[in-house]
Amino acid sequence: MKIGFIGLGTMGSAMCQNITRKHDDSVFAYDIRPDALEAAVSQGAVACTSAAEIARRADLIFTMVQTSLQVLSIYEEMLPELNEEKICVDMSTIYPDVTLRVHHMLEEKGTAFLDAPVVRSKGEAIMGTVGIYVGGDWDVYQKIRPILAYMGRSLIHIGGVGSGIIMNICHNVAVAQIQNAVNEALALAESQNIDMDRFAAALSYGGGQNAYLDAKLTKLETEDFTPEYSVDQMTKAIRICERFADMNDMDLPGMKAAQAVYKKAGEEGMGGEDYCATVKIVRSMVHSHADTDGKEIY
């Protein structure tokens, strides 16, 4: 099976590299940035000059780009080259209604389509251990599961087309709120001279242990905010959740609290920093609202 990969950004480049290294047939790659494409070629991929060329030459096509508009543009370009023999998998984090729109476009060509967004960050993408949420036909998923396993260690079929991206939304809004809660608790602990190591250890003794703090403790301690998953990326994820909630007439107050933090982080020029850098915003917000009027509580 010949594979095509479109979108060689932070995550996509690592995912494509894993496919190229592990697959025993041709892997075609395309990105609008020549340097990204050259890097993929250096790892063994075959360069293509357009998305249409990828669609023409590959049997299984992965797309991993930044925006819903980019996804639509790519699939519109590929459409004339698609047929019932091909499979397309979009791994981008986009609006669910756009996922369904792409699915309906491809249905008319008889082309199988899965949505398979990923979770975790750059390090896991390099290691081939991202989590992948899959929506679409079960038999198609089973057919390409070994290839998805080149990129991810944790694979789960959620349901029909669109369910993968909806689960991705659920994951991201949960992570944003967990992070916000940890940041607030940390700011409170620090205000009372509890050091970060003791805070993390004590939190783990009860129900507060969480993967976010376990993974980010060293970065928080050293204030190393080199991006693995950036403030801008999480801001986008929350924006997608907000739109989905609005379309379904749902109110998510916890999401809105996290969103306010990310909005301020963006205004402070932190968009390119790792999303754990929002601890700086939470610290400033907590201290700016501290009660200083000296009133007795009891």
UniProtKB/TrEMBL annotation:
An example Gene Ontology molecular-function term: oxidoreductase activity
Domain 6-phosphogluconate dehydrogenase NADP-binding: start-end pairs: 2-159
Source species, domain of life: Bacteria
Annotated ranges, domain 3-hydroxyisobutyrate dehydrogenase-like NAD-binding: 162-281
SUPFAM superfamilies in the cross-refs: 6-phosphogluconate dehydrogenase C-terminal domain-like (SSF48179), NAD(P)-binding Rossmann-fold domains (SSF51735)
InterPro entries in alphabetical order: 6-PGluconate_DH-like_C_sf, 6PGD_dom2, 6PGDH_NADP-bd, HIBADH-like_NADP-bd, HIBADH-related, NAD(P)-bd_dom_sf
Keyword NAD: yes
Keyword set, alphabetical order: NAD, Oxidoreductase
Mitochondrion among keywords: no
Pfam family, one: NAD_binding_11
Family statement drawn from the similarity comment of this UniProt entry: Belongs to the HIBADH-related family.
Stored PANTHER family: 3-HYDROXYISOBUTYRATE DEHYDROGENASE-LIKE 1, MITOCHONDRIAL-RELATED
Record protein name field: NAD(P)-dependent oxidoreductase
Organism: Candidatus Onthocola gallistercoris
Origin organism lineage: Bacteria, Bacillati, Bacillota, Bacilli, Candidatus Onthocola
